[in-house]
Design goal:
Glutaredoxin, globular, about 15% strand, alpha+beta, 2 domains
Amino acid sequence: MNELEDKRDEIQVLNFVIREIGYIPLEVQEFIADKTGLFLVTIQNAIDFFPRYKSTIDSTVEIKVCNGIGCSGRGGLLVLEEIKEVLAIEVEETTKDGKSRLTAQRCFGQCANGPNVNIGGEFYNNFTTEKLEKLIKTNVK
């Protein structure tokens, strides 16, 4: 039986990639989207929804900030800008020491509790710039 029976089933494809290389970097996400005809955001939403999927090597702490309409209107863009300043990187970049990677995504599905941030797989709702410094020091640096 072909283990990738349905190549348009992003879960089957992502499970295959996790088994083979242990994480799903952006380049692989883009490749999957191109080869399957799925939207990149569909693949990224699946990666963000299921904790077993990682888009970075485990030693890198991924910081994901929601930039969807709900979170943006509740201060999410301010949080994103503050994180960029604190880490001295832009979105889709990794810090010079390789410890942190910053990404933005459209939605975590928790709009009523925004702005939402995910640091190293742990969700933070109603995130503010005041909470940022403590969390960055604890989880990242």
